[in-house]
Amino acid sequence: MTEHSQKDIFLESEGDAWYARNQEGLGGEGHDLVLNTLQEIGIAPASVLEIGCANGYRIAGICDQFGAKGFGIDPSSKAVADGRSRYPSLSLEVGTADRLPFADNYFDLVIFGFCFYLIDPRLHLRCVAEADRVLTDGGLLAIYDFIAPVPYHNRYTHLEGIRSYKMEFSRYFLASPAYRLLRRTMSARGVSKPDDSAGLDLLSKSLAVAFPPNPFL
Ligand SMILES: C[S@@+](CC[C@H](N)C(=O)[O-])C[C@H]1O[C@@H](n2cnc3c(N)ncnc32)[C@H](O)[C@@H]1O
Q: What is the domain range of residue 132?
């Protein structure tokens, strides 16, 4: 396995294969944990990025609700092509979380859209740095994914050579004093089976309060 093979497999084929298997059901539940949480806390973002956006259906819903400018990135060129024709007002790009083709401090909401578990851990810190780079100071970070009390991996059932990884991904960001956990909402799906445990961690970013003046003077 080369260093980036899991990412390359998603760019070459598995992103499209995931989309072919799941596109029918996307957004069909009539309930989206990310959108619902934003509505509940009453925060209206002006510019939103979803990483691992598939065809962009979630960002389209958020933009409809809040009048935000919507952006997305996903390794599936088929999902992105489909999303560009369904939601022409969105800006969708083919790519991966470790290299975001967006300017610094551009978004006031960045969402990891149930994709962190598919990323090779050797790239995790690059993904953290990229999300932090594009998220403005004072912005919100939403990590929607599996939430496991200890890190572990599973074999990915659809393709040999790929793993899914589980942990509390928000811990990467919460290691920095700039990030605070505002709210955790567990998904109703998977409450009875620990391996399926998933949810949304909503974090705020504030460099302004991260390092206050020296309290020991
Ligand atoms: C489980 S789907 C979630 C799709 C959508 N965000 C949702 O919540 O319904 C995971 C998505 O992550 C994408 N993905 C896989 N590896 C990725 C990576 N390294 N960076 C960004 N997205 C990735 C897949 O192509 C797929 O569209």
A: 5-23+30-208
